Amino acid sequence: MRALLRLIAKPTLNSPLTVAWLGALWMGVFGNWPLWQRMLALPELSDAGGRIFVLVFAGMVSALLGALLSLFAWPRVIKPALVVMLLSTASLAHFMGSYGTVIDPTMVVNVIQTDVREVRDLLSVGLLLSLSLLALLPIAWLWRRKLLTHPWPGRLGRNLLAFAGGLVLAVGLALSCFADLASTMRNHKSLRYMISPVNLYYSLGSVAAASRATPKGPPEVIGADAKLAPLEAGAKPRLLLLVVGETARSANFSLNGYAKPTNPELAKAQVQSFRNVSSCGTSTAASLPCMFSHLGREVFLDQKQPQENLLDVLQRAGLAVLWLDNQSGCKGLCDRIPNAFAAQVASGATALPAGLCDGQECLDAALLHGLDQRLAALDPERVARGVVLVMHQMGSHGPAYYKRSPADRKPFQPECKSNALQQCEREQVVNAYDNSIAYADWILANSIEWLKTQSDRFDTAMLYISDHGESLGENKLYLHGLPYAMAPREQKHVPLILWLPEASSRALKLRSNCLAGKLDEPLSHDQLFHSVLGYSGVQTQVYRRDWDLFAACR
Q1: How, if at all, do strands 320-325 and 386-392 pair?
Q2: Chain Cα centroid distance, residue 539
Q3: Stretch 134-150: mean pLDDT, rounded?
Q4: Mean pLDDT on 319-337
Q5: Residue 294 has what pLDDT?
Q6: Three-state secondary-structure class, residue 114
Q7: Whole-prediction pTM
């Protein structure tokens, strides 16, 4: 504490310890502006007492950062350490301030699993401005400093004293407002994931620890007893087109009561839209593995040993299974089954039409190109037993919603043509998003038309379900990925649409209009695994009849 007081009384700008604490103050006060903005917007902190608490909290954060950086306050260490932390803080400030996101372990997994296309969509002038003001400006000042050197025993002692002093100061500030601190952190848990750059390093550590704890080797086998129920004499094998949507939220589907006509094609296709469906997570990395698991969300989140998924069980039962991807990949789900990217032209198919792909990404219509050839390339013995074809869409992936629909399929204008959503009027952001939903509507309608061409060979069906929803500016939140417990309904309420022609309904022996009576019942991603097994006629001990969407109607 004495070293810290001496530092305050006689600061030396060329001292590593002074530089460390100046960096801590810069990041604590200016780099955490999204946190202070979020806190000042809370109703319980809107009065003078609340503003004083925010100032005290800023002091706590700065003291903790100062304590941490005191350990790195060595002439050859402090500069690179501050460069890394300043760049981290500036980047986090942009994304949290612009989109209302928080940085937790799930968000870090999303970042790790992202691809070049998604990174490119997140680059903006706003990010460059944040990096310039919050990172490059102090880095330029820092790099011009010629830091003093002292014998290492004395330097170590001063650093440790400053570390202890920072902790004492932080604890003292916390105790001075403990009631407000405890109440705020209890009622607004997301705030702890906005303290930069500690949130990033904590989340990285959590992800690394979880990765080390995960057993290596192949996933645990499930459904080892999987087999197909024998078809009745004269019955056709079944073909299920399972379409996994991306970032589609139920509230913006006119099939579910949305005022704008976002589903004109499906409205004519005699589909059934289930209106009360919850996702397993709020990001692709969280939802996709969970929704293809047999465990259900609650158990899946606690599992330690990776397990096989729905696709493995379908293939083990003898069905032909194919995963087509127009996203950043299948998150390991399709590693053991035939798979392809939409940009890869099927053998024997014509080249992709001009305009579908720009060399870096494709519109979702590319998923439909060459489906006959892809089906013909599968094992004919398996095809004769039945087919499950999964299409993973680019869907409504943001923030560049305007890229998700072609120029001739944008019924809602004007639309936001920027990935900096906060710079557009909210109506324009919603229009761009709704155009992507309308385009998905057209894709699904054309998928149904393709399935009709296969009706001579198969009993066909289409099941569409999104991985998670999206925030479009409600409460100043954009995109998705908030921790599930604190995420708004817009990020968890997803569409589930079924096209089941009469012939397929008869093959399943479903009671007439039974499914139509369940459109408002609570459902979730938990039902997907078991409903697909039920439709496909797969028998196994891991199948749960009570989670099969079709079972209650047989």
Answers
A1: parallel
A2: 32
A3: 90
A4: 95
A5: 97
A6: coil
A7: 0.89
Q: Mapping DSSP to helix (H, G, I), strand (E, B) and coil, where does residue 340 land?
A: strand
Enter the tokens of residue 464.
Answer: 């569409």
Q: What residues form DSSP beta bridges with 238?
A: 386, 459
Q: Is the pLDDT of residue 6 over 70?
A: no
CA–CA separation, 479 and 398 (whole Å): 7
Sheet with strand 493-499: strands edge to edge? 339-341, 320-325, 386-392, 238-245, 459-466, 493-499, 272-278, 523-524
Q: How far apart are CA 295 and CA 116, in angstroms?
A: 32
Beta-strand pair 272-278/523-524: parallel
Pairs from 6-14 (Cβ < 8 Å, separation ≥ 24): 7/162, 12/148, 13/145, 14/145, 14/146, 14/147, 14/148
What is the Cα–Cα distance from 384 to 274, expressed in whole angstroms? 31
Tell me the C-alpha distance between 507 and 528, whole Å.
20
C-alpha dihedral sign at 342, 348, 349, 350: positive
End-to-end CA distance of the chain: give it in Å, rounded: 74
Read off the tokens for 111.
């970042």
What pLDDT is recorded for position 2? 56
Alpha carbon 293 to chain centroid distance?
Answer: 17
| Residue in 183, 263, 317, 315 with CA at minimum distance from that of residue 444 | 263
Q: To which H or E segment does residue 110 belong?
A: helix 105-112
Compute CA distances 9 → 5, 98, 346, whole Å: 6, 38, 72
Cβ pair 466, 244 in contact under 8 A:
yes
Per-residue confidence at 8, pLDDT binned at 50, 70, 90? Answer: very low
How far is Cα of residue 415 from the mean position of the Cα atoms in its chain? 23
